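Predicting holo structure, zinc ion bound.
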Amino acid sequence: MPKNGEGEIIEWLGGQKGAMLALLEDIVNIDGGSYDKAGVDAVATRIRKFLEENEIACETIANESFGDALRATVGGPSNSAIMLLGHRDTVFPKGEPTRRPFKIENGKAYGPGVADMKAGLVMNAFVLAAFRKFGGAPAPLVGLFTSDEEIGSPACRPIIEAEARRARAVFNSEPGRPSGNVVTGRKGGVFMKMEVVGKAAHSGGNYSEGISAIEELARKTIALHAITDLTKGTTVNVGLISGGQTVNTVAPWAKCEIDLRYVTPPDREDAMAKIVRIVETANVPGTRATLEIAGEFKPLVEGPENRRLFDHYAACASDLSLKVEGEFTGGCADSGFTSGVGTPTVCAVGPVGGKAHTPEEFLMVDTLVPRAQTLALAVARLT
Ligand SMILES: [Zn+2]
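Done. Tokens:
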């Protein structure tokens, strides 16, 4: 059972389901693709309105190309902060909320980003509001509402890392697994672009003068996929290819996008060395290739510090009669950055959902309140 003083927060959150759903409906129905700055910023404006109505101090950290970051603080004893993290962007194209607005059916809520991770943002906002109202936080709370996680956080990564360095713990409110579990380990990911240059020639009249960039790309693709080592958890996927000029021209160029996933930092170094060697080795004489890292996520490594924070979270869940375990997933998230700077992190503490990044994405509505209560308890009892 919750200890004295926590009771008010738990009870208040217990009565907020309707208000949480109202805020969730509002922000699901706003466009928020990662490249839609106006949309992602409009989501921030709505969240900021809620926070300011609850007398929470807010600050906008502006960005010219991507959405701004929104930072909210609730005071506490002036030692290192507890960070509640979440991203406002979704993977969906413009107009998706109009085509597929928020709805609830049979206990599940639907709509673009409903679980990944607008429900987590709502939860963080309400937990901040609860501590603002009743006090009891053992440290200042920082809520960071970021704008660009789905594309690797090009704008917000430095903000997340700087904030995490100042924090004693990070709770990232990505959606809880369908089992109700949270995430204690995530792979790292490197997203790359490779371009191959060859030489054009008429494929009928002048074949031997041509240098086929497509043939080279094909050979490199096979070599890249061969780096995959499922027992180690390292995978390489060439997910996009394009190239060539016309069917009757030896291809002067070809390019692809490569996704590397790995479990530990040394696995990244191994795989990157192999990838660079493949890029630099011409199988078709005369071709040249270049590689560029377009985005990157660090892994959430299952170390003892993260384990301790997870154990603390799970004990708080247990006091609220919820059973929560930690899971490993290949998907990347901003929790890799916070853990990467050495701050204990637990991920996927958000309300439970599934089928993220698809039109079938859903949120289990009845998990909004208990997950908020668990987070609040984990914050209140953090020593
Ligand atoms: Zn997410």
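The radius of gyration is 23 Å.
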